């Protein structure tokens, strides 16, 4: 604080006047949140890259156990994939409604997105439960350990995304489309589309290549 500013504040205090601060601008940069979230997504990319690399090494380590060709139900996985990709489209509709400043439409499309994400998780849990009951749990072989690690980590991300989405719905209902909520919607949009891109890699690298002899 400069000497002139200090003298001004002291003079105001002596006269009983309220303190006045002439610098009223926000120190937090407008793009700080988005930049931080991009950095988080890049760190998440490293996590999934490590899991993909682990699966690439262990994907054929069956230990005389079942293979992907014997275990994977491609029609079920294709249905699961369709739900997640469709949820990405519905989230896009929510963003369009947000840009048009239509709160109700935004919340409706977000709710549909959450339901599609929940359907995706339900089918994934059904698949995991079926594999474990068939004796193909993550402890059975290196292949299954890598499979459960990669697919399960993606499923946890979808779960966290749904929790975030539900929390955001409450925030929208309470405060509306204020700038803070719009920024949160944009961050969740990046996260949700990121999960779709990762799942396309999982579907191709794990499931489609897994059924090859």
Written overview of the protein:
With 213 residues, the protein is an all-alpha fold. The protein contains 7 helices and no strands. The protein has helices at residues 3-14, 32-58, 68-71, 74-99, 103-133, 142-175, 179-210. The model has no long low-confidence stretch (mean pLDDT 89).
Coarse shape: elongated
Give the tally of β-strands. Answer: 0
Mean pLDDT: 89
Sketch the topology as an H/E string, one letter per element: HHHHHHH
List the helices and strands and how they pair.
Layout: H1 3-14, H2 32-58, H3 68-71, H4 74-99, H5 103-133, H6 142-175, H7 179-210
List key phrases describing it.
mainly alpha; membrane; Cytochrome bo(3) ubiquinol oxidase subunit 3; 7 helices; 213 residues
Give a quick summary of the entry.
The protein is 78% helix and 0% strand. With 213 residues, the protein is mainly α. 21% of the residues are buried.
């Amino acid at each position: 604080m400069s000497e002139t500013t200090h003298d001004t504040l002291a003079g105001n205090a002596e006269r009983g006047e309220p303190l006045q601060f002439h610098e009223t601008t926000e120190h937090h940069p407008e793009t700080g949140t988005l930049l931080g979230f991009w950095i988080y997504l890049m760190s998440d990319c490293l996590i999934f890259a490590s899991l993909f690399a682990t699966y690439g090494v262990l994907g054929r380590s069956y230990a005389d156990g079942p293979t992907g060709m014997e275990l994977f139900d491609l029609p079920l996985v294709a249905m699961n994939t369709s739900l997640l990709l469709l949820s990405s489209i519905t989230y896009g509709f929510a963003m369009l409604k947000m840009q048009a400043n239509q709160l109700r439409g935004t919340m409706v499309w977000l709710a549909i997105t959450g339901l599609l994400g929940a359907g995706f998780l339900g089918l994934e849990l059904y698949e995991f439960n079926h594999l474990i009951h068939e004796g193909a749990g993550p402890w059975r072989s290196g292949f299954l350990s890598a499979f459960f690690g990669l697919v399960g980590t993606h499923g946890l991300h979808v779960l966290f995304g749904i929790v975030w989405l539900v929390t955001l719905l409450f925030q929208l209902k309470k405060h509306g489309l204020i700038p803070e909520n719009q920024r949160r919607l944009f961050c969740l949009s990046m996260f949700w589309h990121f999960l779709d891109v990762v799942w396309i890699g999982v579907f191709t690298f794990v499931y489609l290549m897994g059924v090859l002899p």
